[in-house]
Amino acid sequence: MRQFGEAPPPLTFFEKLKEGLAKSAGTLGLEALVKKKLDDASLEELEEALIRADLGAAAAHDITQAVAKGRYDENIATYDLRRILAEEIGKILRPVARPLLIDGGKKPFVILVAGVNGTGKTTTIGKIAAKLVREGQKVVLAAGDTFRAAAIEQLQIWGKRAGAEVVARAPGTDAAGLAFDALTRARQSGADVLLIDTAGRLQNKAGLMAELGKIARVIKKLDPEAPHATLLVLDATTGQNAIAQVEAFAASVPLTGLVMTKLDGTAKGGILVALAAKFGVPVNFIGIGEREEDLQPFEADAFAKALTGAA
Prior knowledge:
The chain is an alpha/beta fold.
C-alpha cells in the first residue's frame, strides 16, 4: 500500500505501451460492434475499423474472417472480441518478433541503421548502444548522417552518455568514407559492435538511396560480410507510408530488422501488423518514448493485447 504523498511507482513498459496505443485501440470502436450480432454488416464494420487502424486491407480481411468463424449470427461480448482479435493479430506478429542478435564471432558486428528524417533514428542508435554497453559490449558509433550537424552532435551526446566511442567528421564529409574509417577504428580498438548512423534520406531521392548502397559496398572492402545487420527505423505516426519506406530501403540494402518508434499516442499502431503481414521482416525493437528504457525488444502478444485493449 502506498503512503499518502508517496510518488506512484513508474509505469512498466507494457503499461506505457497500453497507454500509448490507447488511440489505436479506440480507433477500432469495438463497443459499438458488440451491440449487434456478428452478421455481414457488423463484420464489414469490423473490417473497416481494422483498416482505419492501419492494419492493411489483407490483414483486416483475414482477421475478420477468423473472428466470424464459428461465431456468425451470434452476439459477442466486448471482452471476448478483444481477446479473439488479440489472438489473431498475435498470430501475424509472432513470426516477426525476433530480438537483435549480436554474433560474437563477427568482430566488430556491424549494424547499419537507416530511416527517413524524423523517425528517431539517431536517438534509437544511442539507446541501442547504451543497452549493449550495459551488457558488457564495447561499442563504436559512426556519425554517418553527415548532412546534418545536429545529427552528428546528437550522436556524440548519446555516445558520451552510453560510454561508446564516436567516430565523427565535419558536416558534408563523404559518408561512405567515414563508415570505412569507423570500421577501421572499431577493428583497431577491439570493439564488439559498430553502429553506423546514415542520412535521413527520403525514399524518393534516388541519389541518397544510392549513397546508402555505397556505404554498404565500401565497408565490404574491409569485411565482405558487413553490414551484418541492417535496421530500418520507422515512425508509427506515418501509418501506411511506412510500407513505401520498407519497399524503398529494401531495394537499396537487404533489411534484417525493423524498429518502430513513436508508438506512444498514435492512432496508427496497427501499421506494424500490416508490415508483418506484407514483408515478414523481423521487428527487433519498438519505442514509446524518449528515455533509454522506452526502447524495448518487440513482444508480439503484449503488443497485440495493447493494440486491441485486451489487457
